[in-house]
Each structure stands twice: as C-alpha cells, then as structure tokens.
Amino acid sequence: MLYAVLGAIAAIYLLRRLQIRLRLSRAKHPSLRGHAKLSRRMARLVPFYEYPASELFRVDNAPADIAAARQQGFERLAQYFRDSAPRTLALSEQLEDGIPDVQFTNAYRVPFQFSRYVRQHMKTGLLAQASSGTRLQDLDGNWSYDLTGAYGVNLYGYDFYKDCIDKGAELVKALGPVLGPYHPVILDNVQRIKALSGMDEVSFHMSGTEAVMQAVRLACYHTDKSRVVVFCGAYHGWWDGVQPGPGNQRRVNDVYTLNEMSENTLHVLRTRKDIACVLVNPLQALNPNGGANSDSLLLASDRTADYDRKAYTVWLQKLRQVCTERHIVLIFDEVFLGFRLARGGAQEYFGVAADMVTYGKTLGGGLPVGVVAGKRHLMQRFKPHKPTAVCFARGTFNSHPYVMGAMNAFLQALDEPAWKMDFEAVDALWNTRAEHMNEQLRLADLPLAVANMSSIWTLLYTRPSRYNWMLQYYLRAQGLTLAWIGTGRFIFSHNYTDSDFEAVMERIVAAGQAMQADGWWWHDGQLTNKEIKRRVSRELLETALPWLRLKDRTLRHGAGHTPE
Ligand SMILES: Cc1ncc(COP(=O)(O)O)c(C=O)c1O
Questions:
Q1: Percentage, residues of the chain above pLDDT 90
Q2: Atom of ligand 1 nearest to the CA of 333
Q3: At 555, is the secondary structure helix, strand, or coil?
Q4: Is the pLDDT of residue 206 over 50?
Q5: Given the CA of residue 361, which atom of ligand 1 is nearest to it?
Q6: Is this model's pTM higher than 0.90 or not?
Q7: What whole-number distance in Å separates Cα of residue 145 and Cα of residue 154?
Q8: Which residues line ligand 1 (CB under 6 A)?
Q9: pLDDT for 278-307, tens place per residue?
C-alpha cells in the first residue's frame, strides 16, 4: 500500500515536471535559432566546403554566357576597387595580419561556400581618414555615403559627435583621466538620464554588453531567481550569459530563448517560478524572432522583415502585464535603439514602461559607454539586512571623465532647438523614404525591396537567387559604405537631407541595375528558395558523409586544401 502511494506521488511529480518541460518547449520558436543548445551542437557539425572557381559563377546551373558575364562583372568590380583605392586596399590587407576581428568579418561577408574566392579576388577597403555630413573619406580621397551608422552610434551625424567630444574634453580637461573621484558633470548626466528614462537610479559602464550584464545580475540578485528570458534572434551583446547559442562555447543553462509575440511564452512566464528577468531588444520589432540579417546568410532570397508597430505595442503591453503579475523584471535593452525612436526611447515610443533600461552607443556622445537605468529597489548593490550578500559590479573605466563630458554634451543637445526632433515626423519621414525607395526599385524592375523601422533598414530580395550577396560590392562601387553584414542593415543618421537621400537611392538603383546587367539575377523560371535550401542541405550532407556523394559533383571539402 505504502509503495503504491509513493509510486503514485512520484508519478504525479514526474508528470507535473514533464508538463512544465513541455510548456517550455512549446514556448520556443520552432526554428533552429529558437533552440540554442541544439543549434550550438549543430553549428559544430556543419562541415566546410566551397565551390571551385569553375562552378562559382554558375551554382544555379546558369548557362555559360551568363556565368561569363557574371565573372566579367566580378573582375570589373575588383579592378575598379584596385584602381580607385590602391592605398586604402593595401593598408586594409595589412590589417588582416594581426587583427582577428578583421579576419572574422572578412570571412563572413558572403556565404562561406563562396567566401574564400571572393576574399582572394575582391579586395575592399576597411579604412577611412575623414567624415563629414553623411559621408566618409577613404585614404585615397574618395567620399562615400555612410550606411553603417557606426553600428547605431551615429544618430545626429558625425560632426555632431565630434562637437560633443570637443565640448566634453574642454569641460573635464582640468581633471583629466582621473578615475575614482568623479567629475561633477556626472550629477547632471544622472539627473538627465533619470528624467529621460523615468527611472530612479543610473549606473555607468564601458559598453552596452556590460550594461546588459549588470542589469541581468541585478535582476537575479533582487528577485533571488536565476533564469533569464531572451527572445529568439535578439542580440544583447556578446556576453555568454545572454548568448546561449552558436558563438559561445560555454554551456549556459540559465537562459531560456523563447518565441517572441507568442501566447505560449506568456504562459511560461505566468506559470514558472524561476524567471528573474525578461530582456527585450525593441529592434526585434522589425523582424520578430529573426536574427540579425547578414549577407553571409544570404544563401537564398528568403530574408524577412515585417515591422508592425501596433502588433509589437500590444505584445509589449502583454509582456508588461505578466511581468508585473509575476514580479519578473522587465528590461528594455535600448543600447541600439535608445534615442532613435523617441526622446524617451522605446518606452515612450511603444508607451510601455520597463523596470530597467540599458543604453549605450549614441549616449556616449561618440565615446564608448554602457548605462543601466532602473527602479531604486532593483539598482541597489547591497542589502542592509544581509551585509555579506552583495551584488558586485565594478569596471575601471566606468564614469570616465571624458565620457561623462561627451555624454553631457549629447544630453544637453537633446534640449537644444537645433537638435530637438519631432519623432513622429521622423518616423513618417523615413517611412515615406522607404516607400519612395520601393517605388523606384519597382520602376527599375529590380528584385529588391526595403523594409524599415524608422531609419533602420534592411534590404529584401524578391526573386530566388544564389547571388544576392554580390549586391554589397555593386553598392560599394557606387560609393556607399556598408557594415560588414552588407545589405542586412542600413543605418541612416538623421542628418540625411532629402538630397543626400535621393543620392543614396539613385546609387542603390544604379547598383541593382549593374548587377542585373551582369546576369547575377538570371533565373531559369523554376528555382525556388526551397530548392536552393534543399541543394545546400544536400551539399552539406555529402560533405559530412562523403559516401553519399554523387560522382559528378566537384565541391571542395575540408579546410586543409591549398587556396588558389
Ligand atoms: C541591443 C544591444 N544590446 C547590447 C549591445 C552590446 O553593446 P556593445 O557593443 O557596446 O557592447 C548591442 C550592440 O550592438 C545591442 O545592439
């Protein structure tokens, strides 16, 4: 009898655990991205292979004349870069021999199957010597429009930040780089950030990644819970603790990567007892559950983006409600978008208040920074009634006087008539510009479209193709500077005038037309994105399991062969 009762209790317990686990599984995004552990394991299994030069221009089975036109186009562009920017290219090449970040970004500009050939034959410049207005100048004196936005830092134009840095340096120069004692300008910064964020306290860090680390640590400390929820595809910096998937070798077991805009996720938040905080990167509204769009992932033409402000607002409201009910700390990570959408950031733009907000990038007035703003009860780093249970956070360069000075110039400018923005008008302006761009792309009959969230854009490809990643080189040749993720993200600074924008639009259309003329978007009338994915999967399988390989295929396998 006793055994039967114990057995029944154990069975109920196990069933309950199973139910909880199933609920969590249902709240994951069905894609591989939604399964961090699995995708980390899978990433290790993907073998290297590449297309040999003889096939590189016709992996879509294009006829010989199209392949020849593509190759000529490729060589013409490479020659153009060599001729127009010899000094920039020569020094850029030297950078590779000592900066792993350069090696990494160069390797991942295009899908890995094409990467080595492209890297060897198409050199692009990585250095600039001046900026002015919306443009950058390379070492050979060429000016180009900047679509990188300095990873999001550049909101008002580079000249604005030069000014912030100068003003800030002037303000603090008597103190110099003293750390420990604060420069008094910090008080004004704290007051201003509190007013902008609606929070009670502020802490300063050296980068956005560190701000996120601190916010998460504080949330766990004050809730006495250890689990962190991030949403599928969302970037929160490169700390292991919010990056459980590929790119991080450590086993991170306390992060749940859940499906954004999903009732199943709300259900998990409502029913689990172990969740300390939920991190939201509002940029995900442009592409919920999608990762950062990068040209290295452009195997086909299935890049997506679909920004729906209303739907995302409703989602954030629901999230707010469940977090309040369950005492889960809601953290808005505004490192990227802060100050771009509204003066009070995403909180104001979507009308939803967070418990903590992280900022960075533009808030430093051009210098490196990370900031956490939060409610008083969440920001404290010790508990008076538990003197040894502290929440430790330091950082040698936190509150550096020069950063505080530049930040102060930035924050003061927000109130100056010259820099005050009517954000609804800004939103409307960039939406109109995006519509205009799409109209031009349609008129030019190009298989391209843009999607945008205010001044953050991504380029979409509307016809199945293996070669969309080539567009980044045509754009560069038109005098447009892109970040290493290529056409995945264009970040416009808000000093783009209509004529600057017209110039960029004309160049995008011209780049597309040149790419079209060189045959890259040739289509046999049958190829679908699904078919492309199927072929790539087969190639991966044949490389991993060579005995499956078909006789007529000539892929290059493994990393050990001699580069051409
Ligand atoms: C939303 C978000 N959080 C955090 C970070 C990390 O900031 P940092 O690169 O300054 O460490 C980034 C950087 O792009 C970001 O976009």
A1: 84
A2: 1
A3: coil
A4: yes
A5: 10
A6: yes
A7: 13
A8: 151, 207-209, 212, 235-237, 281, 333, 335-336, 360
A9: 999 999 999 999 988 999 999 999 999 999
